[in-house]
Amino acid sequence: MAGGAQFKPADTEPRYEVLHTDCAASDVVGHVTSRWGIWVLISLQRNDLRFYELRESIQGISEKMLAQSLRALVQDGLIWRQVEPTTPPQVTYGLTEFGRDVSEPLVELFDRITRRLVPPDGK
Q1: So where does this one cross the membrane (predicted)?
Q2: CA separation for the pair 59, 68 (Å, rounded)
Q3: Backbone phi, then psi, for 21, in 5-degree steps?
């Protein structure tokens, strides 16, 4: 049929088996949805932040857990890390294009949840 819509079969692209423990995508999903990973991504959605600014913006996170979460998210390609050669070194983190793509629905989810938790009278 000339001029008709072109459809490609759904199974032409490789798919990951995220429910299998040996799937690479499963590791990334685990890091994104970890207790602190989601808050790191949401915090970086607005601005690039230094380590201490991230620690201050995420209440309850320890330096150790923040460092572990950042390390995993950098390895996954979701965030970038820039070190300024100062004393002490200033380390800044921000979202990569992949990180922005992944974090947008997380921010939307968070916004939907918080809108539902606001009492109807706004108090």
Answers
A1: none
A2: 16
A3: -70, -20
Position 41 in a domain: yes
Number of domains, the chain: 1
Q: The pTM is what?
A: 0.75
Q: 122's torsion region: left (phi>0), alpha (psi -120 to 50) or beta?
A: left
Q: Residue 64 belongs to what domain range?
A: 17-117
| Per-residue CA distances from 35 to 1, 22, 60 (Å) | 51, 21, 11
Q: Is residue 22 part of a domain?
A: yes
In degrees to the nearest 10, what's the CA dihedral of 42, 56, 66, 24?
A: 10
State the pLDDT confidence band at 117, using cuts at 50, 70 and 90.
Answer: confident
For residues 112 and 86, the answer to whether their CB atoms sit within 8 Å is no
Dihedral of the CA atoms 106, 112, 114, 119 (nearest 10)?
Answer: 180
